[in-house]
Amino acid sequence: MYRKKDGAVETVLVVAARMGNMGTPPDDNYVWRKYGQKEILGSRYPRSYYRCNHQKVYKCPAKKQVQRLDEDPYMLRVTYRSSHTCQFSTTSSFSSTATTPVNYGPNVHNMADLMFENTDSVVPFCEPYFNNDSLVPGAASYEDSWNSTWQSYDMS
DNA sequence: TCAATTTGACCAAA
DNA sequence: TTTGGTCAAATTGA
Questions:
Q1: Residues lining strand C, beta carbon within 7 angstroms
Q2: Helix or strand (DSSP H, E) at A64
Q3: A98-120: per-residue pLDDT in tens?
Q4: Which residue range is the domain that position A76 belongs to?
Q5: Closest nucleotide (CA of A38 to C1')?
């Protein structure tokens, strides 16, 4: 159901403006195994449920759910739940910059909270999460993307 | 062949 | 009861 202040529930908006990457959300540092899909009332698109691929049912409670927005199928709302204990994948392509789960920036738009009851923080991130330099959220390019995101976002 | 994904059903919470 | 979430089994692809 709706989890609002239930520990770690971080909602991130992802612009799926990538051909070929449409139905699949961008990969973070983790491997997700899809364990279910359900249609959500009020939304026209089903929601996909993912879980950590390694800690299937063992311990890592890391969960992730992805759902497209009603009016903007090009946008994916990725909601991360719980904390990640598994930062290591079998065949990891990343090794050094994978310190923090995702570059959850300090920039939190509470606007989403007004629109969505179950949105804690909204930090849209695009394709390049892994930069050799730094994962500093607040880059000009990112910010620009955010604006675009919000523009097409405000219609509710 | 193996593994991941798929769909449906079941269960729990509101 | 309804909606959402999870599990389980079956299927598909590599």
A1: A 1, 35-42, 47, 49, 51, 57, 63, 65
A2: strand A63-68
A3: 333 343 333 333 333 333 334 44
A4: 9-29+40-81
A5: C4
